[in-house]
Amino acid sequence: MGYAFYTLPNGREAGYDVPDTCNLDGCNEQIDRGMAYLCGEEPGGDEYGCGGYFCYGHLFYAYPPDGKPQRCPACIAKDDDADGGVR
Known about the structure:
It is built from one helix and five strands. The chain has about 90 residues and is mainly beta. It has one domain (about 5-85).
């Protein structure tokens, strides 16, 4: 199975061949629904992130590094371990 196009259990299309825009309200940056733009580790969400897709300007790792995957600003803010800094 490749990751260019697939359908999530909730029916949403995902993959690096699926065009989208950043999921942050007000941002119209063109992206795709590939893993590089994913908040968390699993499409559809997991314990680390919401599963949304965000441009590189709105996707961060916590600082100091906490070993968790990249997350959007809202998911970093919700994380009790994050100290508020991003890189």
